[in-house]
Amino acid sequence: MSQAGPILFVSNAQRPPFIAALDEARLFPVVDNDWASAARAVEQVQPAAVLAAMHVGHEPHLATLARKIADQSPYLPFVALEAAGTLPQNALPFSSRGGNSDRLVARLRAALRVRTLHATVLRRLPDAKVGLPEGDPARDATVLLIGRGAAYPALSVALGERVGVVGALSIEAAAKHLNTRDIDGVVLAEGFTARVTDAFLTVLAEDTRFRSLPVVVTAHQLAQTYDLPNLELIPGEPAKVAANALPLIRQHAMEAQLSRTLRSIDAGGWLDPRSGLLTVEAFARDFAKAVEQALARGGGLSVARFAFEPGNSRAQLDAARILSRLMRQMDFGVAQKDGSVIVVFAETDFRTAHMIARRLSAVMRHTSNGKYEMRSDPVVSVDSLSPSDTARSLLGRLSADASRAAS
User: Fold this and answer.
1) What is the pTM of this model?
2) Is the distance from CB of 38 to CB of 10 less than 8 angstroms?
3) Percent of the chain with pLDDT over 70
4) Are residues 345 and 301 in contact, defined by beta-carbon separation less than 8 angstroms?
């Protein structure tokens, strides 16, 4: 795999064999550096990725190196090898597990794809009517927590302080969430046999939709290797598991954010990079046109509004992401400034729209946030176009129905 720049390997000891294998296979040119001058080497070498061995002597320099790497643009992957303690927010954990260089190559390839995607977005942004969403991508991430053991509640809270959490007490429930939601990471906790864990990881590895998904296993040693480049074993206390899983989750959330931004650029800026739905301006334009055409042709048109508690922007974003994933190609929606989400169902009567809205609402209820404990249950209102309607009157009636339902 070619990339713009070498791999910087930071260590105060000799290269382990699995690092030397990267250079010998000519997959990546590797440049060695010690910890004391690692931050300066990032400026001088301009690497495409940084690998750092968490051995003796790294402690005084780790925070400085992590900050220097975080300041680079485009995204510079930072992989921490054999880390025992809590890592910086941008350090991807990696345990060699027997010195298998193939796992490290896969981890690097996945991270470098995100770097390339970031460079592509930055190149196209100056000519686009869209900007990159500001802030930490992890704030919008959603993690699937699967488990049944005593550590499950504590893990839910520890993860929920950092990201949105969808809980599943069974593998079957987890599979449903994976098929209906945008998930940025999976944490597989205790409560399952090694055989069940193996079967679940095998299914994930065989499905191309989930192959790059971060998967953290907390309670089992793995019986075999899996084609999951971001699979990692992180045992320990829930706070440590959450902290060290977060960099992998953040990288996936960033990749998803960049992909939505590219789609927005391709759509002329009419898609919101955070939600994946239309912008407010684009929705107003398309909705007016859809109402006009439905009235002229006599076709059906229904609208659903999902309203959330004031201030619960996380629930609104989660609902918007679910809608952007599940709605039909002929439908369109928007995340409104009042905290609601509206979706328009083309060629759909009231009864069918009500059934669809009820199913979508059921999916939305499962996300929790362990820090704020805010409910994600939406107030749902559905209405259909009548011959005397305009776009404004239909939306006005929908909002009035939602106000009555909430009171």
Assistant:
1) 0.89
2) yes
3) 92
4) yes
